[in-house]
From TrEMBL, chain A:
It comes from Aromatoleum toluvorans. Keywords: ATP-binding, Cell membrane, Membrane, Nucleotide-binding, Transport. The lineage of its organism: Bacteria, Pseudomonadati, Pseudomonadota, Betaproteobacteria, Rhodocyclales. GO terms for molecular function: ATP binding. This is ATP-binding cassette domain-containing protein. Residues 6-234 form the ABC transporter domain. SUPFAM superfamilies: P-loop containing nucleoside triphosphate hydrolases.
From TrEMBL, chain B:
Keywords: Cell membrane, Membrane, Transmembrane, Transmembrane helix, Transport. InterPro entries: ABC-2_transport_permease (IPR052522), ABC2_TM (IPR013525), ABC2_TM_bact-type (IPR047817), ABC_2_transport (IPR000412). It holds the Pfam family ABC2_membrane. This is Transport permease protein. It comes from Aromatoleum toluvorans. Its main location: membrane. Coiled coil: none annotated. The keyword Transferase does not apply. The lineage of its organism: Bacteria, Pseudomonadati, Pseudomonadota, Betaproteobacteria, Rhodocyclales. It is found in: Cell inner membrane; Membrane. The chain crosses the membrane at residues 20-40, 52-72, 106-129, 141-164, 170-191, 227-249.
Amino acid sequence: MTVPAIRITSATKRYGSLQALAGVDLEVAQGEFFGLLGPNGAGKTTLISALSGLVRPDGGTFEIMGFNVVSDYRNARRNLGVVPQELVFDPFFSVRELLRIQSGYFGIRNNDDWIDEILASLDLTAKAGANMRMLSGGMKRRVLVAQALVHRPPVIVLDEPTAGVDVELRQGLWQFIRKLNRDGHTIVLTTHYLEEAETLCGRIAMLKSGRVVALDTTENLLRRFASHALSVRLERPEAAAALGGTVTAGGWADFPLDRYEDLEPLLARLREAGVRILELRMGEADLERVFVEVMNGA
Amino acid sequence: MVHDALTGFRTLLYKEVLRFWKVGFQTVGAPVLNALLYLLIFSHVLDRHVTVYGEVAYTAFLVPGLVMMSLLQNAFANSSSSLIQSKITGNIIFVLLPPLSYREFYAAYVIASVLRGLFVGMGVLLVSLPFVDLPIAAPGWIFAFGLMGGAILGSLGVIAGIWADKFDQLAGFQNFLIMPLTMLSGVFYSIRSLPDFWQKVSHINPFFFMIDGFRYGFFGQSDVSPWLSLAVVGICFVFLAVLTLAMLARGYKLRA
Ligand SMILES: Nc1ncnc2c1ncn2[C@@H]1O[C@H](COP(=O)(O)OP(=O)(O)OP(=O)(O)O)[C@@H](O)[C@H]1O
Ligand SMILES: [Mg+2]
């Protein structure tokens, strides 16, 4: 068996009286595109910081590609690229200088070919010579992504990389990160844009108050938690209530559906009751609904 | 891609040197100008009235003190301001995420501080030369004390930069510790001219030994033996290095 890209066991961290991490166990396999979701203050950044050695956890072990982040920090850190949530930069240097310096910190000299490639992929080539202060917020964020990639880390953790990035570039960024994932990089992503997580992530962990409250494949989460719903516009909407539906505005009624197989019998019951359907649409389960349900239930 | 063990350390050192070199006007030029002003004013006021060690003119006596004072202050300023700026802006993470050891971290910040101190010190010396007749009796001592002084203040700067959360705390460290210790160390006077009691007090100030030993390199004379000064300064450095390394190893304030 290959080692997991990330293994976290019983991670705890307390800030004063606040339990930021309350015993997190998590394993991410190599090659996964993994989502780490949770409301503000759930502990996502704390978990990432402990994994990358920026924060000392109170307890638990953290491994990256099998390397313990404390006892074997050199190997662990070589295997990890982190895009921080905060928009931080060094105002003394240009984009290219910064990327060269960052490469150097990882023990890599003459990294210009790869740096050029990253710059091109992130649409930053034109800004390579610009001082960091001259960049817009979205550009600074892309430089953060670039900095995390200079050493071609097999495991890449992105803490809200798309906050403040415009739509077009967001698409470009995802394309690039997807490509990295296809090339074998393990991706861990936190975001508050749940549609993004839904389309990108194969597996998702949801964190609340420092605890993992849901952990499954995106598909299973969508299936397990959120029921589909059938919305129909009826000639006599008032008839819906007797059949288990909820009347909404404009003559529409919603019928919950746990599985697609339940669709046929539902339509049959409507027909038998003599209710004529004028219009019909399926409400798809989405991650936002799952998220809300999980957070309320947890 | 070329990997090698020293590249990380060398890059951090290079970055720290570049950081002050890019704004050399402020980080080297300004302190040199400052010292020159001190020199012109003090020598104008005192030169004809005071001699030290019997026959050394006051201006000549003053120059090594000014050189050392500038060197020490700038070595301290370099590591402390770099660290606190990185901490406050948050870009400190870029040196905390890579596989750099705390020893490499320490060495890079301290060596960069020493270099800035030496640059400033040399600058002050060079601009002073036209104004004074300065002997150079033992350049080895000059270099040794310059180096040790820079390393001690560079370490103090690392400690202060890590400890301080705000610029005022750093300023406090500088104004209430570094400045008084420097000023009372004999930069502007020979402690032999002090009353007995104050001479004794001066002897518990490690800065006195840095400056006294440094001055020995120029005049071949000093208030105490340069070997004693070297021993005191050496012990001080080892103590501070151990303290700073212990802080860094624990991740004190940097990896909270
Ligand atoms: N340095 C710190 N000192 C004190 N408390 C902290 C510190 N860092 C984080 N916390 C607290 O720990 C909890 C978890 O914070 P964390 O930043 O991990 O949340 P998050 O899930 O990343 O949230 P967001 O989605 O807003 O980024 C929060 O309640 C936060 O206030
Ligand atoms: Mg966060």
